[in-house]
C-alpha cells in the first residue's frame, strides 16, 4: 500500500469568482484597494477609492486600513508607503513603473539642482522617492498651478520632471520655470493631425486634454485638466460628445457617469494602442487577487529617503 500525498495548494490558483474572493480578502486583511483611472475596468469597479494622483495620495494619507493595495504604478504605491511606513503596501505588478519617473535619474538631477543653487524644487508626483527626497514641494496635475501661485514672485523655481506640465503651469501662472526635460510616453503619442481630423469629423465634440500632452495638442483643447478634472468637466459640460486626450482607461468612468454621452479616445500617431499606458496595464484583477492572497509584491522605501521624501509630500497636502 502506498500512502497518497495530499496535493499542495497552488499559491497562484485563481478562483472563478474573483470579485467575491477579492472582497473577502479585503475584510480578512483590513485592506483598502486604491486605484487610478488608468487601470482596466474591472479593477476600477472593485476599488474602494478611485481617483487621480492627488486624490489617491490624500486617501493614502487618511486611511485606517492596515493594508493598502495600490492599483496604479510604482511611484504611487511608493508615495503611499512614504506616508504609511507601518502599513503593508502592495502593488499587483512590481514592473508597473512610469516613463516619466524614469526620465529623471537622481544623480543627473542632483547635478541639475546644483547648477541652480538659489532655486526651490517643485516636483510632479510622477517621480521616484529619491527625486522626492531632493525636492521642496511635490505637486500633481490638479494642484500644480495652485502650488506655484503660492510661491513668492522673487523665488526662482525648478519644475521637474515633466516639461509639458511645466510649460503649461508656466503659461497659467506667468512664472518663468526652469524645466527638467522629461515626458510621458503615453501623452506625447497623440497626433495633432489626427485630432484636427477628428474635430472636423465631429464638429460638435469638445476636445479635452491632460496637461502632460505636448503643446501642439494642448493648443487645440477646449478644456485642460487632471484626470479627475477631465471627468468632472465631461459630466458638467452641456456637450454630449468629447474627444479625450489622456489614457483611455478614464473613459470607463466618463461613460459610467454619463451613459448617454459619447467619448472618443484621442488617437496615437501610428494607429497603435500607444495611448494605453503599458505600465498601468500590467496590473490585472488576477494579479491584484494574488498580491492580496500572498501579501506580495510589497513596496518598501529606505528610511533615510522616506523621511526626506515625506516633507515635500506633506507640504503638498498642506498647500492643496
Ligand atoms: P493625474 O492622475 O494627476 O491626472 O495624472 C495622470 C497620470 O499620468 C498618472 O500617471
Ligand atoms: Fe507614467 Fe505616463 Fe503611464 Fe502616467 S501615463 S504612469 S505618466 S507613463
Computed structural class? alpha/beta
The CATH superfamily of the largest domain is identified as NadA-like
Q: Strand count, sense and closure of the main sheet?
A: 4 strands, parallel
Number of beta-strand segments? 12
Helix fraction bin: 40-55%
Number of DSSP helices?
A: 15
Bound chemical compounds? 1,3-dihydroxyacetonephosphate, iron/sulfur cluster
Q: What is the CATH first-level class name of the largest domain?
A: Alpha Beta
CATH topology of the largest domain: Rossmann fold
Structure report:
The chain has about 325 residues and is of the alpha/beta class. The protein folds into three domains: about 20-95 and about 280-300, NadA-like (Rossmann fold, 3-Layer(aba) Sandwich); about 100-185 and about 310-320, Rossmann fold; about 190-275, NadA-like (Rossmann fold). The protein is built from 15 helices and twelve strands. The chain has helices spanning about 20-30, 40-45, 55-60, 75-85, 100, 105-115, 130-135, 145-150, 165-175, 190-200, 215-220, 225-235, 250-255, 285-295, 305-320, and strands at about 30-35, 50, 65-70, 90, 120-125, 135-140, 155-160, 175-180, 205-210, 225, 240-245, 260-265. The strands form three sheets. Strands 2-1-3-4 form a four-stranded parallel beta sheet, sandwiched between helices. A four-stranded parallel beta sheet has the order 6-5-7-8. A four-stranded parallel beta sheet has the order 10-9-11-12, sandwiched between helices. Strand 9, helix 11 and strand 10 (about 225) form a beta-alpha-beta unit. Helix 3 (about 55-60) runs parallel beside helix 4 (about 75-85), helix 4 (about 75-85) crosses helix 15 (about 305-320) and helix 12 packs parallel to helix 13. The termini are far apart. 1,3-dihydroxyacetonephosphate binds near residues 52, 53, 142 and 212.
Amino acid at each position: 500500500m502506498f500512502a497518497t500525498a495530499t496535493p499542495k495548494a497552488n499559491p497562484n490558483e485563481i478562483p472563478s469568482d474573483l470579485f467575491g474572493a477579492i472582497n473577502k480578502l479585503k475584510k480578512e486583511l483590513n485592506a483598502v484597494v486604491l486605484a487610478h483611472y488608468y487601470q482596466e475596468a474591472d479593477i476600477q469597479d472593485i476599488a474602494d477609492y478611485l481617483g487621480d494622483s492627488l486624490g489617491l495620495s490624500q486617501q493614502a494619507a487618511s486611511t485606517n486600513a492596515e493594508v493598502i493595495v495600490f492599483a496604479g504604478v510604482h511611484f504611487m504605491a511608493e508615495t503611499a508607503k512614504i506616508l504609511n511606513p507601518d502599513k503593508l503596501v502592495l502593488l499587483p505588478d512590481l514592473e508597473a513603473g512610469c516613463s516619466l519617473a524614469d526620465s529623471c535619474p537622481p544623480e543627473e538631477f542632483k547635478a541639475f539642482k546644483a547648477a541652480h543653487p538659489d532655486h526651490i524644487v517643485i516636483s510632479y508626483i510622477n517621480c521616484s522617492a529619491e527625486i522626492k527626497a531632493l525636492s521642496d514641494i511635490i505637486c500633481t496635475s490638479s494642484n500644480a498651478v495652485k502650488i506655484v501661485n503660492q510661491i513668492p514672485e522673487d523665488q526662482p523655481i525648478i519644475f521637474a520632471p515633466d516639461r509639458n506640465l511645466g510649460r503649461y503651469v508656466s503659461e497659467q501662472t506667468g512664472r518663468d520655470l526652469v524645466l527638467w526635460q522629461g515626458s510621458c510616453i503615453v501623452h506625447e503619442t497623440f497626433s495633432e493631425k489626427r485630432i484636427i481630423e477628428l474635430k472636423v469629423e465631429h464638429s460638435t465634440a469638445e476636445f479635452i486634454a491632460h496637461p502632460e500632452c505636448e503643446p501642439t495638442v494642448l493648443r487645440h483643447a477646449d478644456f485642460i485638466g487632471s484626470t479627475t478634472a477631465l471627468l468632472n468637466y465631461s459630466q458638467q459640460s452641456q456637450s454630449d460628445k468629447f474627444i479625450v486626450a489622456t489614457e483611455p482607461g478614464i473613459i470607463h468612468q466618463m461613460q459610467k457617469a454619463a451613459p448617454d454621452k459619447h467619448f472618443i479616445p484621442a488617437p496615437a500617431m501610428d494607429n497603435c494602442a500607444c495611448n494605453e499606458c503599458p505600465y498601468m496595464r500590467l496590473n490585472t484583477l488576477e494579479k491584484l487577487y494574488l498580491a492580496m492572497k500572498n501579501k506580495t509584491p510589497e513596496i518598501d522605501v529606505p528610511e533615510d529617503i522616506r523621511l526626506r521624501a515625506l516633507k515635500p509630500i506633506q507640504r503638498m497636502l498642506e498647500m492643496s
